[in-house]
Each structure stands twice: as structure tokens, then as C-alpha cells.
Amino acid sequence: MPRNYLSWFLLVSLCWPSPAKASGFLATGPGARAAAMGGAYTALPGDPAAIFYNPAGLTGQQGGLMLEHVPINEQGSGLSFGDGRLDFVGIQYPSKIGTFALGWYQFAIGGIQARENLGDPATTISVTQTAYFVPYAVQFGRLSLGVTGKAVNYNLGTYQDTGLGTDVGARAEIFHRDTFLGRDTQAFAGVAVRNALAPKLTLYEDPTAIEQITTVGVALTSKVREHYAAGQDVVAHDRFTLNLDFQRGNMDTPLGGAVGFEYSYLGRYSLRAGYSADQNLTFGLGMEISKLKVDYAANLVGLAPQHHLSLSWYFTDPPAQVESDVHLSEFRRATLDQERLKDRFLREGREAAAQGDYETALADYEKAQVMDPADQSVAAFVASATEGSRLAGVKVRLDASRRERAAHNDDLASKEALDAVQFDPQSREAADFAVELRNQLISTGTVRSFDAQRGRALEENARKFEVAYIDQNMGELRRLVVRIRALSPDDAATWKPLVDRVFAAEKDWCSDYAAEAARDQTTKDVFGMARAIRRIRRINDAYPQLGYLVKRLKKLSKAAGGSFYNRNYLQQLYDNAAADYVLGNYEEAAKAVKILLNENALHEAGNALIDRMRDEGHLSFAQEP
User: Which fold has domain 5-314?
Assistant: First the structure.
């Protein structure tokens, strides 16, 4: 039935560009999620409703289409679809050069009885007020910028006009780390100027500009709980979000604020509430099923949009985020590999130890320890096998030397005896046997074979020393100096210069690495600083500046975002790296541990694996991540 003109006059005047309400119907934004949070949506990374609130919020989001319908009627219940309506259609598409979007927003009422004068017969008119949006947004690191060109059309009976204008906005991530709230806590700040270039419309005699409104907002969001959904093999999180906005117009809109709250369960089911000076209390619900999302908001203020219903469809994949919704198929596969390989090398180590092959047993136990560094029982096996390997290794080589001596193979007897000395330079038994063997060879006039074998061993170790020195492999340098000294303990001229070079290298290299760490701290290079500290620790874990540098690294790593990655993902990366290492795939192991340390430069087991690979010569100085 026709509406009475007077009963709708106030509602129409709320939407009309006039000194009383110059912002018109654009004073109310689209989107049920935004409405449920009191309209506090300036800083929050959002859905296509960001087309209206802040075009900079379109960056870093999925491509999506949003449809919204808001029924309006004169009784204020807002449940009738036969009276007025407020509709929105928005679409956004992310690309390599930025995010593009389109939006259409319309307020419409039909069947209004109107008269030019009170005595004139009534005529039926309709009112439509429409805005068209064409936004573009681009991201530079943590900063996003957006601009929107728009056209606003007002149509009341025979009066109509269109004005062109522009919105601008910016949004920045200002905080990102783990906090007491939960993991992956983020804070954003945003500012938007709607009608920065204000559309002007002439419906009577004078043109009227739509009010320019500036909003400033902050948003805080954090993962607060973790759930494992066995059916989908997925780890999901609950998320808490809090928004705060302030806005002011250049005409009649006073300074006002709005606050919004959202709790999202499993990232799918959301409960929302908000408060604003204009809208008072609001609340809403949201549900996401696959790529579809349904949102509802209620605002029971009369003569204003009361019930918002939005339907969104996301047609592109979300941006990659390793710290959220970790699919456990890769994680569980890595965990199973870790358990299988650990059990395999423990079993093979026991079998080798039972046969008296302690060198093989030690190698197997050390591989098992790499697979699970925290297992103290494996550490006990390693300690036991180390001692057994040391004793058995010397015995095997000395027995071989005795057999060769009995067969008058003096060259081989000398070689086996000197190998025993090099295998365990601390072995008194090996040293005494070598001295005794040389004395025997002196008495038989064949000592030249022993001295020649020792000369070759010294020459080979000296060559290895130079290679290790160039590669700055301090562990290898120290081992070689001990071997050379054990081979020729009475010839200080052979080993003393090497001891001096190692001592000088310790001092110089630590100083160089400390300076490198300081430079990396200045440039906020977490990865480079962690590498420099790791190198210092390998040389001298009591270095005076080490404690200070570690403290600075811990602080810097949080500021750079290195500490908030999902622990399951980090464990997966380490398990993959460890599996490649124990299977001899050293190149792949280095790649995997590099990814791990990129995500968390302080990862203890990852850094220890790098140390092991460097010490064993599987990584050169230049290859060290």
C-alpha cells in the first residue's frame, strides 16, 4: 500500500544531503560483520566491506564477493522485506600489482505519497540513493595504501543528480609477536578519509557537498586456543579480535567513537558485539563453510538499518601463513619418519655393540640422538658407546699392528700403530705401543719405515690443517693439532706454531664474528646475527660479549617476527632436516635447516645440527646458513 509522506519524511531526511545530515545514507557502512562490531572497521584487515570503510584494508585478503540486504520499515522492527531496503554488492580481486575492487551500495524506498503543497493531490514517488565505488589498494611491507573513486547518485521523484568523489585510506601492522593474550598477536592502525574529495549534488537550487568524515582506528587480534580436528587432520585456532575507532566530520558529525569485539571459534563460527555513539549496542553472528561465509548483525535503533544479512563467497586461496591452520599430514609424516629412524638406529646401534663394533654403534647412536636431541636415554647410549668406541678402536688398530709386525710387514705395522695414536691421541696405551714399536725397528735397522709413515701422517694432517684454517673450522683445527702433537710429542717445532695459529685464530675470528653480529643487529638481520653468534659459540662459549649478544638477538628476533611460528611447523622442519642428515642427504638437510632457522633463528636443535654438519665437514664456511 502507499506510504504516507510524513511518516517517511524523517527517514528520508536521514539519508538526504542537507545541513542536518550532509553525509546522507553513506553515514552507515555495509557488511554485517562490520555492523556487529559497531562500525569499528578502519584498521581491521577485512572483507569486501573495506571498500566502504578503508580501501587499504583490501590488501592481503582473498578474492571475494559480498552480497548484503538490510530491510527497513517504518515500524522499526526491520524484519519486513516489503518496505525500504539498503543493499550492497562488493567484489575484490588480489593481483601481483595490488588489489582491485568494485562496489555498489543503494538505499531505496518506493510508494511514497508526496505533495508540492498541502492541498495538492498526492502523487506516488520513489527514493533511491546509490553509490558506486572503484577502489585500488597496494601493500608495501607492513604498510597498505588505498584510494577509491566513487560516484554518488540521489533520486527523489523528479529531483536527481550525481556527484563524483574520492576516498583515501592507509593501514599498517604495528606489532606482531607472541604475547600473554596468545600466539601470533597482531596490532594494526588505520586511517581513512571518506569523501576526501567530496561529491557535490544539486537537487534544488544550491549544490551541497556530502560531508567529509575522517576515521582513525586500531585493531588487536590474537590466536588464543589451539584445536586439532582429527577428521580433517588440521590444527585450527580460536581468534580474539578487538577494534577501536574514532571519527569526526567536517560539518555536523561530532567526534565519536566505536568499539567492536569478535571471538572466532575454530576460525569458522564467530560471536560479535559492538558499541558506538550513534548505534548504541550491536551484536552479530558469523559462520564460514568452505568458501562461503554468512554474517548477521542486529541493531535495534529505530529509523536506522536494523538487521544486516551478508553472504560472502571467496574464490581465491588465502595468503600462505605457515603459522595458522597447519595441515598435519606433513607434520605427522615427518613425526613418523623421526620415530622410525630413531628406532632403526637405536636397534642397529645395539646390534653393533653386541658384536663389539663400538665405532658403528656410536655412529648409529649419534644419528638416533640427532633425530631426538631431548631423549636422555639416547644420550646415555652415546656416552657409553663413545667410551667403548675409544677403547675398542685403539685395541683393533694395535692388534692389527701386532699381526703385521709378526708377519714382518713393518710399513703396515707402523701405519696401524700411528692410526691408533691418531684415533685416540689421549690413549697412553697407543702412545707407549708406538714408542716401543719404533725402538724395535731401530734395533732391527728398519726404523725408516716408521719415520716415513709418521712423516706422511704429519704431512696429511698439516694439509688438512690448512684446509680447515681456510674454512674456519675450529673444531677440526683443534683435533688436528692434538693429532700432530701426539704423532711427534718431542718435536715442538712441528706442533707449537700450529698451536699459536689456533690461539690467534680464536681471538681474531671471535672478534670478527662479534663485529658481524653488531652490524647485523643494527640492520635487524636476525638470521645473520644468529649465524655470527653460533660461530662465536663454536670457538669460545665463554667469550665475554657472547651473553650480551644473545640477549640482543632474543629481543631482535621477537621484533622481527621470528618467534611466533607454530611449534608443529618448526618440529616438522627439524624432523625433515634431521632425517636427511642421518640418511646422508647433507645438501637437502642444509636446505631444510635453513628454512627452519629462517622461521626461528634461535631454534636450539637446528643450530646444533648446523654445528654438527660444520664440524664433520658436510658444510663449508660459505655454505653455512
Answer: Porin (2.40.160)
Residue type, 91: I
> How many CB atoms lie under 10 A from the CB of residue 293?
21
C-alpha cell at 293: 561465509
- Cα–Cα distance measured from residue 276 to residue 287, given in angstroms and rounded to the nearest whole number: 24
Taking every pair of Cα atoms in the chain, the longest distance, rounded to a whole number of angstroms, is 143
Per-domain boundaries in the chain:
5-314
What is residue 12's predicted lDDT score, i.e. its pLDDT?
44
Q: What is the 3-state secondary structure (H, E, C) of 158-201?
A: CEEEEEEEEEEEEEEEEEEEEECCEEEEEEEEEEEEEEEECCEE
The whole-angstrom separation of Cα 27 and Cα 591 is 54
Separation of alpha carbons 240 and 220, rounded Å: 8
Q: How confident is the model over 208-245, as pLDDT tens digits?
A: 888 899 999 999 998 887 776 555 656 678 899 999 99
pLDDT at residue 277, rounded to an integer = 76
Q: How do beta strands 269-276 and 159-179 pair?
A: unpaired
* d(C-alpha 516, C-alpha 530), whole Å: 10
Q: Is the dihedral of CA 578, 579, 583, 587 positive or negative?
A: negative
What are the distances in angstroms from CA 429 to CA 15, 242, 384, 441? Answer: 100, 72, 20, 18
Handedness of CA 73, 78, 81, 85 (dihedral sign): positive
